[in-house]
Write a structure and sequence with these properties.
Chain B: Belongs to the ABC transporter superfamily. The complex is a heterodimer of chains A (302) and B (290). Chain A is mostly helical. Helix content of chain A is 74%, strand content 1%. Chain A is built from twelve helices and two strands; from the N terminus they run H-H-H-E-E-H-H-H-H-H-H-H-H-H. At the A-B interface, helix 1, helix 9 and helix 10 of A face strand 6, helix 3, helix 5 and helix 6 of B. The complex binds adenosine-5'-triphosphate and magnesium ion.
């Protein structure tokens, strides 16, 4: 599509040599020989060899993990660590098949997801704009930054007693803790992104007639997006950590509570089930964010 | 197309009694002193000078990014006090917005002006066609070669129909072949648009080949050492660079710059001490040794 021969130019434009020279395609256009299915498959294989290899090894390593787990639990190995009461993978699978038909288990999961959704969304809605504004306006930065720096090192879990005092309902305090956990990574990364915006781009925008508002929208914001998404990804991870801790300590529902309850009720298979569910949910939500990032930043996908 | 490119063939730059000092902890650093330059409407003027003599400083003041410490910068009689779309600028670092496609980059100035989408799309396409870039309108800058990026940069700066175009070593990072092509493209655009150009470079050949007039600056603190008219006829061909006329101009400018470069370097080298360089001066000046 970008072959130089196709570049049309007005009659009276610059010397043709200059244009032909100047419009060399950035990458060579592939020779369009009609290929058979076999050669295409072979080419695809060659291009994706690395990825296929990684996938194969990844699957093998997961199987090995399950196998080791299985062996350790069937032989009830005690070697510094005691596997006596640890459920086997098959037992966990059995409890999984019953759990997915159990509306209570699904409710735990849904509630955790809802808490994450609200807490994390709030963190993004507050953290990103605040970071952008702090990065642009010195006074706001000077006022807010010290407070943020003092509060930031406090783990969200340490807020549990305070949250219970602050908020009238248990539900609200758990969401609050989730919010706190993700808020600071989002804020700090947005600020970092703002501080790295190339001043030449700002100048370029200025001498194209951009005013403060447009520069903010057209330069600072998109330039910071990669770091904002780093912040969102980290924030999502911390949100889950904070949520599970909060649910274990003060909750009544949620997947963290489910896991803890399983321990109290001596349902060991459910402990592992809860843990795996948390892992899968965490993975899923960070994949969602990565997908959103690729959607919002098409210029970064290769 | 004509509305976009319409240029009232104005763009008279005047820099009078100009000086600029940077404030630093050690006190003010005088970058440029006592400088007068002008660019007539439609003229192509270059500034050459040794590294660090204040070429960028001067250009940035014309762009409106820096305020003169003394003196005044005007364009068509209006005092410059801040960047504006009237003065397009092309930077050495390619400075394209990575999150915008080639066409969106070119459209940016028109968008800022509030031109409706369909209209500015058409304008951007026309301009990209002029620079032989229409096939790449949907590409993101990252995928382009250096020469293409800089062409987009020039087209973007021209899209708003500025009165003057300011370029700060725009081809400094390009290889020799691409440079020559870019010089030709720039000349072409300049002649079609009848715009005033102020061009900073440290490449003497480039300055002579492109310009109607060349200012040569002294070592820091920079001021104008000489003003050299370039009477070569247009359109200029690559072959002219071998002509005796060209070579004479080149020799003249070379010796002017050499003097200043040695002045600039001599100071630095003396400051460092000569031992490390393993050169015995025996009372000669550095200029004599080299
Ligand atoms: N922000 C600044 N603060 C202090 N000194 C500065 C600053 N910017 C530039 N200078 C000094 O002012 C002088 C002129 O700088 P300028 O960038 O204008 O030079 P130049 O001629 O463009 O050099 P080059 O050929 O390397 O691009 C230099 O000696 C530089 O060290
Ligand atoms: Mg410079």
């Amino acid at each position: 599509m970008s072959s130089p021969a196709l570049v049309r130019h007005p009659e009276d434009s610059m010397p043709a040599t200059a244009i032909a020279e100047a419009s060399r395609a950035p990458a060579a256009t592939p020779l369009a020989t009609p290929a058979s299915f076999g050669t295409i498959a072979l080419r695809w294989y060659r291009l994706n060899q690395g990825r296929l290899r990684a996938t194969a090894i990844g699957i093998a390593s997961l199987i090995a993990f399950l196998l080791v787990w299985h062996l350790l639990t069937t032989y009830r190995v005690v070697f510094f660590v005691r596997f006596t009461n640890v459920p086997s993978p098959l037992a966990v699978y059995a409890s999984f098949t019953t759990a997915i038909h159990d509306p209570k288990f699904l409710m735990h999961i849904l509630l955790s997801c809802r808490r994450i959704f609200i807490g994390f969304s709030l963190a993004a809605i507050v953290g990103v704009p605040l970071g952008l504004i702090m990065g642009r306006f010195k006074l706001v930065h000077e006022v807010i930054f010290p407070v943020a720096e003092v509060l930031r090192p406090i783990p969200a879990i340490a807020w549990v007693p305070m949250a219970i005092m602050l908020w009238p309902t248990n539900e609200q305090s758990i969401v609050f803790i989730t919010f706190l956990g993700s808020f600071f990574p989002v804020l700090v990364n947005t600020l970092h992104g703002m501080s790295l915006v190339d001043p030449v781009l700002v100048r370029a925008a200025q001498c194209l007639g951009a005013r403060e508002r447009s520069i903010f929208r057209e330069v600072y914001f998109p330039a910071s997006l990669p770091h904002i998404f780093t912040g969102l990804t980290v924030g999502m991870g911390v949100a889950w950590v904070s949520l599970i801790a909060a649910e274990m300590i003060s909750g009544q529902y949620g997947i963290g509570y489910f896991t803890w309850e399983a321990y109290s009720l001596v349902q060991y298979a459910d402990i592992a089930l809860g843990m795996i569910a948390i892992g899968v949910l965490g993975l899923g939500s960070s994949l969602l964010i990565r997908g959103a990032g690729q959607l919002v930043m098409p210029w970064r996908s290769t | 197309m004509s509305e976009v490119l319409a240029n009232t063939s104005k763009g008279h730059i005047e820099v009078r009694n100009f000086s600029l000092a940077y404030e630093t902890i050690e006190g003010p650093v005088q970058a440029v002193t006592d400088t007068q330059i002008h660019v007539r409407p439609g003229e192509f003027v270059s500034i050459v000078g040794p590294s660090g003599c204040g070429k960028s400083t001067l250009l940035n003041a014309v762009a409106g990014f820096l305020k003169p410490t003394t003196g005044i910068v005007t364009v068509d009689g209006d005092r410059v006090n801040g960047p504006s779309a009237e003065r397009g600028m092309v930077f050495q670092q390619y400075s394209l917005f990575p999150w915008k496609t080639v066409r969106e980059n070119v459209e940016f100035g028109l968008k800022m002006r509030g031109m409706p989408r369909s209209q500015r799309e058409r304008a951007a396409r026309t301009l990209l066609g002029l620079a032989g870039l229409e096939a790449f309108e949907k590409h993101y800058p990252e995928k382009l070669s250096g020469g293409m990026k800089q062409r987009v940069g020039i087209v973007r700066a021209l899209a708003t129909g500025p009165k003057v175009l300011l370029l700060d070593e725009p081809f400094g990072a390009l290889d020799a072949q691409t440079r020559v092509i870019m010089q030709q493209i720039l000349t072409n655009m300049w002649q079609r648009l009848k715009i005033s150009v102020l061009f900073v470079t440290h490449d003497i050949d480039e300055a002579i080949f492109l310009s109607d007039r060349v200012y040569c600056m002294t070592a820091r603190p920079g001021s104008i050492k000489a003003e050299i008219p370039i009477p070569l006829e247009r359109p200029r061909q690559q072959s002219m660079m071998m002509s005796s006329e060209f070579l004479a101009l080149r020799r003249g400018l070379m010796s002017l710059i050499r003097e200043e470069s040695l002045k600039a370097m001599g100071g630095e080298i003396n400051d460092m001490g000569m031992q490390g360089l393993n050169i015995e001066l025996h009372g000669h000046s550095l200029a004599d040794v080299i």
